[in-house]
Structure prediction request, 515 residues.
Amino acid sequence: MFMPGRGFENQFLAWTGGGGWQTKAKLLDNKQNTGPNDPNNLNYYPFVSDPITLGKSKTKFGFTGGEMTIEIYSRHPGGTVDNKQDLVQSIRVFFPDVTGGLPVPKLSPTNTEFQNRLSRGINGNRNNLGAGDNNSGYRWIETGDVIRSIDLGGSIAKGDARLVALNPKISQKRR
Amino acid sequence: MPGWLRLTRKFRKSGDNPTYFDKRGGAAVYDGMQERVHGLRQGRGGSFQPNNDSGWDSEDGTLVAPPTFDNRRKDRQAKLPATVKGSPLNGVKMANDKPGDWDRGISKNIDGPFINRADEGNVNFETGALGIPYYLGFSGAAEVGPTYFSPNRLMPSAVMFGGLPSRGITDTSSSGDPAAWETLLFRPQAFANEHRGGNDPANAPADHYLLDLFHMPVVEPYAISEPLSTAGKINLNYVIAPFGYVKPAGAPGGAAYIERKTGLHAILKPVMMLLVNGNAPNYAHGPDDPTQTNTTFRFDIDRTATLKEIQNRIDTKDFLTQRPRYVKCHSIPRMRMGTP
Prediction:
């Protein structure tokens, strides 16, 4: 599982305690290895799960959904942070089960290594996730990928993102 | 602000059915065998590769129901769900089933549920490029320096709050859930019950009374001479007794003997009204270079006609029973004859 989108590319670090800002997720280098645990190193996309191995004969796989809470904190450069005081917003989302299974993803013919997608901007010369690399992320989605999303199409939001933006706690309910 | 919102929000208990989020594209698409089902868009509204909307993605919903054909600008789409409660989103609506409130992006910038973002200024006059401020996309902004920075541009008046949801925390008149696509009403209603927050007694007080809580002084430059300075305020109730009630026969527009409308003319002079025909290509979010079209979308205010309506309100003593407020008066655009 990964979470693409320019908003997530270079902005999000999490307070892990102990004196520094780091990401709680894994940092992967272009060999899918854990990258340097350096909060200033944004070359590696962090929101990636462990790989899931499927047999060659499989054409479908199941997805049982799950719940996820996204917490957004205000960041105090160089200062101490209180997790409770500085929690700006908490969004709890729920991915429903997929009934009947999903097609098995195919390996991208152009980018077998996920990290390479991050360096493939539209001009081919965007090689990291720095703030100045405007076009990074154009090729994060490739032919053969399988994606399921939830969006603001629930009966409360009806697509109006303002309602999510102004409430400090958004709680998605199971249906 | 989040602090008091947290105190006032009443959350539903676990197990309640209403949701913020739902399956992208509805159950049939989410549970289907289509490979990619998502609405991920770049910041400026363009699709991610490997392709644009061509069947690989579930189509976005629309802010307005297309009149005859879908003429949205495909690479600058509003970021919307494909469906709401499983049904295609074909035009956003308020709780009363009337068309919803949303913001329009300047030039080719996307439309959507924004909060009337403040104008931070743009001095992009790049030679060789398009070179017109506000008309370039993600890389076309040139930040203003202290010479041009203006706090009054960021917040010219409290009417800027008109982009905020009016019932974004809870809608006590219905389910208690927030009301989507409904913002504060700081304009006159075209017809009864068109929009909550107007002059409908059932939904009193009107939203525009919130404006009484604010005063935005003119501070740049502040008046050098204090006597006769109004600190930026212009009185709608401009009649000067007794001369203002004396109307010579045959005076144009029923004008009084002496009128004090100069300030109103001045404040309406730079105001323009955006009017986009539903059949306009790209909903007028293009071409990127505005010099490449002869179609007019921004119109001057017809000051004579608009002030005549204000005069009618004065003549019928409407302003004597309700507080004068320009947001209650219709602004009338001057349609230029001959333009397509």
